[in-house]
Write a structure and sequence with these properties.
The complex is a heterotrimer of chains A (397), B (319) and C (556).
Chain A: E1 2-6, H1 7-17, E2 22-24, H2 32-43, E3 50-52, H3 57-69, E4 74-78, H4 80-85, H5 87-95, E5 101-106, H6 120-123, E6 131-134, H7 138-155, E7 159-164, E8 172-176, H8 180-186, E9 203-204, H9 210-242, E10 249-252, E11 259-263, H10 267-280, E12 285-290, E13 292-294, H11 298-305, E14 310-315, H12 325-334, E15 344-349, H13 359-370, E16 378-380, H14 387-396
Parallel strand pairs in A: 2-3, 2-4, 4-5, 5-7, 6-7, 11-12, 11-14, 14-15, 15-16
Antiparallel strand pairs in A: 1-8, 6-13, 10-12
Chain B: H1 32-44, E1 48-52, H2 56-60, E2 66-67, E3 73-75, H3 81-94, E4 101-107, H4 109-113, H5 116-124, E5 130-135, H6 172-177, E6 183-188, H7 192-203, E7 209-214, H8 218-221, H9 228-237, E8 244-247, E9 251-254, H10 264-267, H11 278-304
Parallel strand pairs in B: 1-3, 1-4, 4-5, 5-7, 6-7
Antiparallel strand pairs in B: 6-8, 8-9
Chain C: E1 15-16, E2 18-19, E3 31-35, E4 38-39, H1 41-45, H2 52-60, H3 64-71, H4 78-84, H5 104-113, E5 129-133, H6 137-148, E6 152-157, H7 165-168, H8 177-190, E7 193-196, H9 206-212, E8 215-218, E9 224-225, E10 238-240, H10 241-249, E11 259-263, H11 267-278, E12 282-286, H12 298-306, E13 311-312, E14 315-323, E15 326-340, E16 346-350, E17 356-359, E18 362-365, E19 369-370, E20 393-395, H13 398-401, H14 406-426, E21 445-449, H15 473-476, H16 489-498, H17 510-514, E22 520-523, E23 526-529, H18 539-543, E24 549-553
Parallel strand pairs in C: 4-21, 5-6, 5-8, 6-7, 8-20, 10-18, 11-12, 11-18, 12-13
Antiparallel strand pairs in C: 3-24, 9-19, 14-15, 15-16, 15-17, 22-23
The chains are: A alpha/beta (397), B alpha/beta (319), C alpha/beta (556).
């Protein structure tokens, strides 16, 4: 059924369709309407769930861990500071192999206080063992939440569904909300193999000595590798059911492209417009949208980018002291390619703290990259530069 | 056998027979926390799920693949005992298993300090859990560092002489009483029947329940292992640790009238108090007297008040 | 936890469901608890070595017959001892601090009176024969225990009936004859042969005994009285207390003066004075020290005073005053107490010029007795094992160590029976005198006596000692009816339940409940320590209210 939904509402609908049983969440802008919608669903009886209105995000994830350990399907949502506060337990949830679904509305980290979007909050969690999926539309959000539960419960890993603050979370679009019966067929109730059960008493989380800890961590890695295939499979199955599939990566006008923009989230949508513009100018541009970030779809990426001249990775984040994170990840994934097939990989850091990334920005970036004018390895875009560089730029202009 | 005589009962203690604690756990010899858990599980039975944050019991339970209890255990992060238990309760409720008790079993560090926020939150929301703080009055698992449960004058590794702890012990039961928690009580391993009764009473109440259990720690208190129960008894009999219950933050019941032995009987058995000066001991004596006066005033206050008003059916007290 | 395990055999997360019982924490300990019965102070003090706490425990459980049997395992005359023993067990009784000592003697008496199958069966016949001279308490105890050991026993006694001092020297108001007769009868039922009215040196010689028997035990007691040593003591109305008592107790009623002075401070003096009262004489007890130094059983002195018998303390007789052939008084000198003498008591010292005359028509001497060695090969002496210099000849009772109580005599008889039994089986004598407590069927560490400080008072409340029922004075002084009345079964059981059971496990289960390691489990009639898991903390030992556990070093 078609509804006009912003990204946050799409999350709430996805969770309702997935029949989450326990929700524990703490408000933080711009996630708040997700949990308000869910509270309303529960209060009206549209969703049979217990909503634990915890007193912090750390407690929110702790409550989810408790409930999931007892075999309930759980959900939480947060942003920035909240996600950072959860960090200890983000590690915990993955180590505990709990199929928790968390929606993070990408928001810049303080100080100074910022409620606008960038990607550092979720990318800071990339090493924890969680799966991460970056969405670009409200439709994709509702579909991805349902898919996420299915994948998570198969491979027994928690997953973050990521949406940009305001650009996605608060922008309305027409969404085809799937029917509950269809989702019920697609997503059966959770049957957690090992859980808190008085009929099968065991302990979770005892001390593990060095002679065994590594095996359990290896199993997490193996689960991630399995997850790549499971994501493909679930996405395909969902496609057959509702007619919408997304893949692990989205390729746009990659045939005969020379200069490709690679990014995640809503800038990708903007990027497609820029690519069209450049094509009209005769420049063979293309775009890859990174959807699944963890596990990292290295094989797909290699296949898509092998042999291309150059790739510009747009990061709305930065790992200070090195480059943007997507930039690093892509470079390392492509390093396995033989040199002649390996494209040049340039990085652009843009849009931190919610600074707008316009069509003009992306077109300019693509043009400059195509002409070899983009500095290597990384360019901080549309930001005040140190004095000397500003003067040099002015002179160059 | 004579038919005239009543049945001979030599037992001093009448406790449930069931044993859900297994031998071979890793507690130190003479550990009060081990005895406490043994009694708690006797009281609560096999339909119990236990949440254990970082604390001595995280180690006592044994390393993977061993398990010391005959009930399920979820080990959780340090700060999260109360809220993890609340999460479990939410799941059990959704699965129609309200017959299973959820027991958060945390040390003083994970209750008074780092776990305080989540405890306060869970109690304010009246989550249906039983929370037992087994209190050995310092961070014993990490090697005897001070907590806000450490009493005045005690030596710890972070309050070494001459900087022994200047602050008094935080009164956790009173804090939770002011949350209007349905049921809060103190207990001692030297009074097992009282502890068991309180747990069984807690289990029968819907909502948040808290029991503050005083336990001995030979390693951290620097006491003889064999005296663990005796020292716990002296804590009560000298008045240092009163045994009482408080319902809905108002109705106080003192469960045991101590003989008020001089506090030196208690202090002299623990090396952590060895350095106390006569002036410090006199301060402790006066503090005991003052705290008991305050406690009795609360009993009287509770008796002077009528029952609190009951919320209307449209907004019942959540369970 | 070897790394040789297969990855797929591991669960997908660290799920622990193997019991920790696999971890043998018992290797941690360097001391371990041991259930070891210790010696309660009552049994430590009992001259007959009664296993007091255990028969009290058996009775406390309601097993009246079992308790009676346990008591009679070595003790031949509990009904008697319960009545006449001065109960030295009750002095050190730890319950004294918590409501009053256990009235052990009242329970012993109750159990001694229990009818039924209370005597153990003797061991198979050994073919050995023992002769015992004297059927008093020592002789009876030796006879009983040697017969139970399977030997043939014959007791030679010069009185008409067995019992010795029990029959001739203890009045019926303390020990009814029916009670004594029954106890002797039970011993005879075992197969002990009594040869009454046979005096060694008259009807049979000592050498004949030595020839016909494999061992001879001399238990003749002290039946020769000390003399007054004052002028006038040969007057016919100066009576020997022991002989006069024997007559009265045999039922004779000789003509006696209206008022008689009884000289002495021991049990005989009390028994004589109270018996005289009952036959219509007005006795006055004359004693040269004060009440505190009297060797008589305190309860007897109390009872005598309650019955109205006057006492003249610090008075020593110097002369019997005779006028016209009749005694008119006993001249006495006032005494004062000086330095202690050999007995440890302060020596009476005459006060010069303090003579006075106590009016009376007769005098009875009760100054203590010594052994009558006539008919025996001289004054025999024995070592601490009660072995004499003559091979195969042993001593028992007052004649061996003069301890002076019936109970001590019984203890002496039990010990000599052990020595003689060993001699008869192996021709060897033990190196040391046996301790009766070490002969109990249940093992006890006789070197560990439970002092009050070793009890855990947290589990013991003060429970008041019940009164000992006495017949009212008016009722009792007119006859020889028993003064102290017995208890009902309910009362006896109640008193048994007041016993702390020092050093004796009564399964109170504190140890079991307080073990942090669940390393104590119930076993047959007690508990067992799981040594694989016990860490040796010692809480069980500390929380045992009654010191029935001890810690010992682990030997590896």
């Amino acid at each position: 059924m078609k509804k006009l939904l912003k990204g946050n509402s799409a999350v709430a609908y996805g969770v309702k369709l997935a029949r989450a049983e326990v929700i524990a969440a703490y408000p933080i802008t711009p996630q708040t309407s997700i949990i308000e919608d869910l509270a309303a669903f529960v209060a009206k009886g549209e969703l049979q769930a217990t909503f634990v209105k915890v007193e912090s995000e750390h407690s929110a994830l702790a409550a989810c861990i408790g409930a999931a350990s007892a075999g309930a399907r759980v959900f939480t949502a947060t942003s920035a500071q909240g996600l950072a506060l959860m960090h200890e337990l983000i590690h915990w949830a993955a180590g505990a192999r709990l199929p928790i679904v968390l929606a993070d509305v990408n928001r810049a980290m303080a100080p100074g206080w910022s409620i606008w979007t960038d990607q550092n909050d979720t990318l800071s969690q990339r090493d924890t063992g969680w799966m991460q999926l970056y969405c670009a539309s409200s439709q994709e959000v509702v579909d991805s939440v349902v898919q996420a539960y299915k994948v998570a419960e198969k491979v027994l890993l928690p997953v973050m569904i990521v949406l940009d603050a305001f650009f996605l979370s608060h922008t309305h679009e027409v969404v085809d909300v799937p029917e509950q019966t269809l989702v019920d067929r697609f997503l059966p109730p959770l049957d957690l193999p090992l859980r808190l059960d008085v009929d099968r008493p065991g302990a979770f989380g005892n001390l593990v000595f060095p002679d065994r800890y590594m095996e359990f961590r290896y199993k997490i890695e193996l689960a991630h590798r399995e997850a790549l295939e499971v994501w493909r499979e679930v996405d395909r199955e969902w496609g057959e059911l509702v007619g919408r599939s997304y893949g692990l990566l989205e390729a746009y006008r990659l045939e005969d492209a020379e200069t490709v923009l690679l990014t995640a989230g809503t800038p990708a949508s903007t990027g497609k417009v820029a690519v069209d513009q450049l094509r009209q100018e005769g420049i063979p541009a293309g775009l890859v949208r990174l959807r699944l970030f963890r596990p990292f779809p290295a094989a797909e990426l290699e296949r898509l980018l092998s042999g291309l001249r150059r790739v510009v990775v747009l990061d709305r984040n930065c790992s200070y002291g090195h480059h943007g994170i997507f930039h690093q990840e892509v470079k390392s994934a492509l390093y396995e390619l033989p040199e002649r097939r390996r494209p040049q990989v340039l990085g652009v850091v843009a849009g931190l703290g919610g600074r707008d990334i316009t069509v003009a920005d992306l077109a300019a970036i693509l043009r400059q990259a195509h002409r070899g004018e983009l500095a290597a390895p990384v360019t901080w875009w549309n930001v005040l530069q140190p004095e000397e560089e500003a003067v040099a730029l002015a002179v160059a202009k | 056998m004579s038919t005239n005589a009543t049945l001979y009962d030599p037992k001093n203690l009448h406790l449930p027979d069931q044993e859900l604690l297994r031998s071979g756990h890793l507690a130190c010899p003479g550990c009060g926390a081990a005895l406490g858990m043994r009694l708690a599980l006797k009281a609560l039975g096999p339909k119990t799920i236990v949440v254990i944050p970082a604390c001595c019991w995280a180690v006592i339970n044994g390393p993977y693949p061993f398990h010391a209890l005959g009930v399920p255990v979820l080990q959780v992060a340090f700060e999260t005992a109360a809220v993890s238990a609340a999460g479990i309760r939410a799941a059990l409720h959704m699965k129609g298993r309200d017959d299973v008790a959820v027991l958060a079993w945390a040390g003083d560090g994970g209750t008074f300090d780092i776990g305080f926020q989540s405890l306060s939150g869970a109690v304010e929301r009246n989550e249906d859990i039983i929370y037992v703080c087994y209190d050995n009055e310092a961070y014993m698992n990490t090697g005897i560092q001070r907590s806000s449960a450490t009493p005045f004058g005690a030596w710890t590794t972070t309050t070494p002489e001459p900087d022994t702890k200047p602050e008094p012990k935080k009164n956790i039961v009173e804090i939770l009483a002011e949350h209007r928690i349905p049921y809060a009580a103190t207990a001692s391993i030297a009074f097992p029947e009282d502890f068991v009764r309180k747990l069984q009473k807690a289990r029968s109440i819907r909502g948040a329940k808290f029991i503050h259990l005083w336990i001995s720690c030979p390693a951290g208190h620097k006491s003889e292992e064999r005296l663990s129960v005796k020292i716990a008894r002296l804590a009560v009999e000298t008045g240092v640790f009163p045994l009482y219950e408080v319902e809905h933050g108002t109705r106080y019941t003192i469960n045991h009238e101590p003989s008020f032995l001089d506090v030196t009987h208690y202090l002299e058995l623990q090396g952590r108090f060895r350095h106390l000066t006569p002036e410090q001991i006199e301060f402790i004596r006066q503090s005991i007297r003052w705290e008991w006066q305050r406690l009795r005033a609360k009993v009287a206050m509770g008796e002077s008040l009528p029952e609190p008003p009951v919320p209307p059916a449209s907004h019942p007290r959540p369970s | 936890m070897a790394t040789q395990a297969r990855l797929r055999d591991l669960p997908y997360l660290p799920f622990s469901d193997k019991p920790t019982t696999n971890i043998k924490t018992g290797t941690w300990k360097y001391v371990e608890p041991v259930y070891e019965n210790a010696l309660p102070p009552c049994a430590h003090a009992c001259p007959a070595g009664n296993d007091i706490s255990f028969f009290l425990l058996t009775l406390a459980k309601g097993d009246v017959l079992g308790a009676a049997r346990w008591l009679r395992q070595r003790n031949p005359i509990p009904a008697t001892l319960g009545r006449v023993c001065p109960h030295p067990c009750e002095g050190p009784c730890n319950r004294a601090w918590l409501g009053g000592a256990i009235a052990v003697h009242m329970v012993e008496r109750f159990l001694g009176d229990v009818a039924g199958d209370v005597i153990p069966a003797p061991a198979p016949e050994t073919g050995k024969k023992v002769a015992i001279v004297g059927a008093g308490p020592a002789g009876l105890a030796a006879a009983y225990n040697l017969r139970l050991a399977g030997h043939h026993v014959e007791v030679f006694d010069d009185k008409p009936a067995p019992g010795g001092y029990l029959r001739t020297g203890i009045p019926e108001y303390r020990l009814p004859r029916a009670v004594l007769d029954r106890e002797v009868d039970l011993i005879a039922q075992l197969g002990v042969v009594f040869r009454q009215k046979v005096r060694v040196g008259r009807e049979v010689s000592f050498e004949e005994l030595r020839d016909s028997f494999d061992a001879v035990i001399v238990a003749v007691g002290l039946h020769r009285s000390r003399a007054l040593g004052i002028p006038g003591e040969n007057h016919p109305q100066v009576y020997n207390g022991v002989k006069l008592l024997e007559q009265l107790l045999a039922g004779e009623r000789p003509e006696l003066p209206q008022r008689m002075a009884v000289v002495g401070g021991g049990n005989t003096a009390m028994d004589v004075a109270r018996s005289l009262l009952r036959v219509g004489v007005a006795p006055v007890v004359v004693y040269r020290r004060t009440r505190a130094e009297m060797p008589a059983i305190a309860a007897e002195v109390e009872d005598a005073m309650a019955e109205g018998i006057p006492f003249e303390f610090l008075a020593a007789p110097v002369r019997v005053v005779v006028e016209q052939g009749r005694i008119v008084g006993l001249a006495c000198q006032r005494m004062t107490l000086g330095e202690p003498d050999a007995s440890g008591r302060r020596r009476p010292v005459p006060v010069p010029g303090s003579e006075f005359v106590l009016p009376c028509g007769g005098v009875v001497t009760a100054l203590g007795e010594v052994t009558d060695w006539e008919g025996l090969p001289g004054e025999l002496a024995a070592d601490s094992r009660q072995v004499t210099a003559i091979p195969g000849v042993f001593l028992a009772g007052d004649v061996a160590d003069g301890a002076g109580t019936v109970t001590a005599a019984v203890g002496s008889g039990i010990r000599v029976a052990q020595v003689v039994d060993s001699y008869l089986r192996s021709s060897e004598l033990p190196a040391q005198a046996p301790r009766v407590q070490a002969l109990w069927p249940r093992r006890v560490n006789v070197d560990r006596v439970v002092e009050f400080s070793r009890l855990n008072l947290a589990y013991l409340r003060s429970l008041p000692r019940p009164p000992i029922p006495h017949r009212p004075v008016e009722e009792r002084i007119g006859s020889f009816v028993e003064v102290v009345e017995g208890w009902s079964e309910q009362q006896a059981i109640a008193e048994a339940r007041r016993c702390i059971e020092c050093g004796t496990c009564n399964e109170c289960s504190n140890c079991l409940y307080f073990c942090p390691d669940v390393a104590i489990h119930r076993a047959d009639g007690g508990f067992v320590v799981d040594r694989e898991h016990c860490k040796g903390c010692g809480i069980c030992v500390e929380e045992c209210p009654r010191d029935a556990l001890t810690l010992r070093e682990v030997v590896r």
